[in-house]
Amino acid sequence: MMFGAIVSTLDPFVTVSQLHSLGTAKPLILITEGESLFVDGTAFITFEVFKDLATHLSFIDASYFTLKLVLKVLGSPLIGFIMSKIVTFWLSHIFDDGLVEITISLAMTYITFYLAAQWLGMSGVIAVLIMGLLLDTVTFSPEIEVFLLRFWEMLTYLANTLIFFVIGIVIAQAFQNMAFSDFLYILSLYCAVQAIRLVTVVLLSPLLSRCGYGFNYRWALVCFWGATKGAFCLSLTLMAYQAEGLDKFQVREKILVLSSGMVLLTLIVNATTMNMCLKVIGMCDILEPKRLAMNSALLRMKENAQSTLNMLKGDRFLADANWEMVNIEEFSPSARVTKCPDCDSSVRLAPSPRELDDMMEAARVRILTALKESYWKQYSSGMLNREATRILIDTAEIMTDHKGKFMTVQDIKKYWEPKGFLIALQKKLEDWLYNVNIEKLSPSRSAVQKLCCQIVFSVPFESVIYVLILLNIFPIIIEFVPVSSDEYSQELHVGLAMRKAYILNPWNQFDLFIIVLAVVDIVINDCVASFKVQMIRIVRVSKMFRLTRVLRLIKIIIPKLITLVEHQIHKQLSLGYDIGKGYILGEEDISKIIDHIADDQTVSKKLKGILEMNRQVAVKEIGLLQRNHPEIAISVKTRQAARAVLNSKRETIKSLMLLGLLDEVESKKLKKMIEIRMKKLTKFPPTIPAPTPGNLLQNVPWLHSDVAQIEFIKKVAKLMIFDFGDIIMHENDKPQGIHLIVSGVVKGLAKAS
User: Fold this and answer.
1) Residues 381-386: contacts with CB within 8 Å, 24+ apart?
2) What is the pLDDT of residues 400-436, one digit of tens each?
3) Angle between the N-to-C axes of helices 253-265 and 145-174, in degrees from 0 to 180, rounded to the nearest 10
């Protein structure tokens, strides 16, 4: 079983690399990589379990084996999940410090592995794998994305090189004991593994074709032939070779030779012939939508190159260059044409309905890819926060897998709607605190009862009650101490203003419940004298109920709980406004380049209509959110405006440094000052009170903060409120004044002439 786990591992790096270079069948790439992760994780757990059985068989029983298996299968992913949350929380407090973030990512990888493998007896590989899957580039600062990816790519390359180097040295020693039969065993093992792989793919194909992305014979052949072995298989081989409890010549060296030979054969046979296999089954063929997109891109490259060429010919330094050598056509885009039956001229061939559908689907995927780039650009410039960026990018990724489906507001609206639990909790806490029902009751006509009501509902009375509760808790606790259990303590219960308003208060009902329990406690204590032995346990239980009166102190912290819940609701709404605004900006960015994405006019027109409709719906939802919660919208706008100003300052510093007006030391100091302010924006409050119309006039550019003009406008201005869909004015209406938008969104419509 241990050897089977070693040879069952997958490392289809060659297949994935070639599929990436083709740019087709992205679902197949996800299936291949996902299978590799799942198979390698399962194989590693199986390898560790059976390696322990083989090396410590006399010390392992069934319960120990079961416990260890549960820890590796269930505990390892849990540790990886917890460590990913710790890393995310840690990185959220670091701003644009590449070395620190890279160090954290590297250190936490080793800490997670060591904690899971050495301290908790779990699988370190699975824990690190889960932690890596739950972290993405959005978790880190956008400025270090390239540095982060290059660092881990280089680290992966060095690790793979080191593994192959070490295994080569070890195999060189084992070759001394190899026989001709070992080569036959390696060849037989390779054929057997390939046959088992083929049978598995064939048996699972009917199921895979009916779920997920679907499955066809081409994908099945790629999954079968692309199942190469690599560094992970060699790593397990080295671990088995170093196991001291196994026989060196009969087990360890045999595993080393057979596994290494298996890896070598898959790399020589499968990896080298994978490209030819893809060509045979037609996976290298360029589809019509991709060909049209490439032709469109080449045509635009040619136009831009010609424009640049014409501009350079007028340059005073380059005017006498040899333009015949420069003007070399390296590519010539071609389009499908046909002959006109009337004039015998070449005209572009109109695509068929099926080709239009394929072009529409290809354009949809490109739009979603461009949307992700737009969201990342907004995140890099600070216009989107980290959580909003992650939600938008993940939603776009999900939509990519659904054929024909575009990203709409309904797909992201659920992220900013306050959760029902928070709303219900807030309402319940407010009812407990303010006791809304009491306000609906009429005051008593009796002067005595009215005075009692005023006393019991006053703040000083509440404070006295809290003090009495605290003082009463200590005797109750002392009764449970064995030395003082025989002492008798008396309690005094005083009732005031026992009328309807007092009883309807939930806290007073709770007090009444405590009094009833106290009476029951007294009755039980009186009965103890005659039934001391039988009733002693009941007395102990009844005394425990006295401690429940300490729950009355919860009322003190309820205002804090209400504030906390409101803060969470405001954070959710602020996140929603951020998401909606980022979505609108993304749709507007794509609308500008839609003609570059879809070359066909029919497809381009249809896509523009879809994008415009989605944008209008998003603007409506954002407008409603801003109308209902203006303080949240103002907070987001203020944060984004502050970040835009800081971005401008940072770009100015870069420009001055390139011009030589600032040296490196000076620019670093200035950048540090700006980055400190940028970091403070990450903790910006989710709500800001809406400014008064008078304060808004101070920020109107054409008023220039003129006090006289501002005071004049204040005297003659009127505050007007418009609901969604209301018409403010029509074209050609006589002006009634100047409209200054205090809050909300206004849409201008015009009829085509």
Assistant:
1) 381/643, 381/644, 381/647, 382/640, 382/643, 382/644, 382/646, 382/647, 382/678, 382/681, 383/582, 383/585, 383/640, 383/643, 383/644, 384/578, 384/582, 385/575, 385/578, 385/682, 386/92, 386/138, 386/139
2) 888 888 888 888 888 777 766 666 776 766 666 665 4
3) 120
Nearest to 567 by CA among 683, 487, 463: 683
pLDDT digits (tens, 9 = 90+) for 603-655: 888 888 898 898 888 888 888 888 788 888 888 888 888 888 888 888 898 88
The answer to whether the beta carbons of residues 580 and 625 sit under 8 Å apart is yes
Give pLDDT, residue 195.
93
Q: What does the alpha-carbon distance between residue 226 and residue 274 come to, in Å, rounded to a whole number?
A: 7
345-351: Cβ within 8 A, 24+ apart = 351/288, 351/600
Helix, strand, coil percentages in the chain from 3-state DSSP, rounded to 5: 75, 0, 25
Half-sphere exposure of 237 (CA within 13 A, CB side): 28
Return the higher-pLDDT residue of 439 and 91.
Answer: 91
Residue 338, SS3 per DSSP: strand
- With a pLDDT cut of 90, the percent of the chain lying above it is 6
- Residue pair 207/237 in contact (Cβ under 8 Å)? The answer is no
**Per-residue pLDDT tens digits for 55-68:** 776 566 677 777 77
Residue-level pLDDT at 86: 93
Asked whether 201 and 224 are in contact (CB, 8 A), the reply is yes
The whole-angstrom separation of Cα 676 and Cα 673 is: 5
Cβ atoms of 88 and 139 closer than 8 Å: yes
CB hemisphere CA count around 722 (13 angstroms): 17
Question: At what angle are helices 532-546 and 506-528 packed, to 10 degrees?
Answer: 160
The three state secondary structure string of 355-382 is HHHHHHHHHHHHHHHHHHHHHHHHHHCC
467 Cβ contact list (under 8 Å, min separation 6): none
Report the sign of the C-alpha dihedral through residues 53, 55, 61, 65, in that order.
Answer: negative
Rounded distance between C-alpha atoms, residue 233 and residue 157, angstroms: 16
| Helix (H/G/I), strand (E/B), else coil: 10 | coil
pLDDT over 50 (residue 495): no
Query: What is the reported pLDDT for 492?
Result: 35
Residues 397 and 368: their CA atoms lie apart, in Å, by 8
Residue at token pair 């799942």? 38
* φ and ψ of 335, to 5 deg: -125, 155
Supply angle C-alpha 246, 248, 254, rounded to 5.
100
pLDDT confidence band for 148 (50 / 70 / 90): confident
> What is the rounded distance in angstroms from the CA atom of residue 201 to the CA atom of residue 219?
10
For residues 256-260, give the mean pLDDT: 88
Would you state the structure tokens that stand for residue 734, as one six-digit string? 């006589």
Phi and psi angles of residue 676, each rounded to the nearest 5 degrees, phi first? -65, -40
Pair of tokens at residue 267: 């790399």
Straight-line distance from the first to the last Cα atom of the chain, in angstroms, rounded to the nearest whole number: 79
Q: Is 89 exposed, middle or buried (0-12, 13-18, 19+ CB in 10 A)?
A: exposed
316-352 pLDDT tens trace: 788 778 777 776 555 555 555 555 666 666 656 666 7
Comparing C-alpha atoms, which of 432, 634, 469, 641 is closest to residue 548? 469
Q: Which residue has the higher pLDDT, 496 or 197?
A: 197
CA nearest neighbour of 606 among 408, 348, 406:
406
- Compute the distance between CA of residue 47 and CA of residue 4 in angstroms, rounded to an integer: 8
Give 329 or 129, the one with higher predicted confidence: 129
* Residue 736 phi, psi dihedral angles, 5° rounding: -105, 5
CA 428 to chain centre: 31
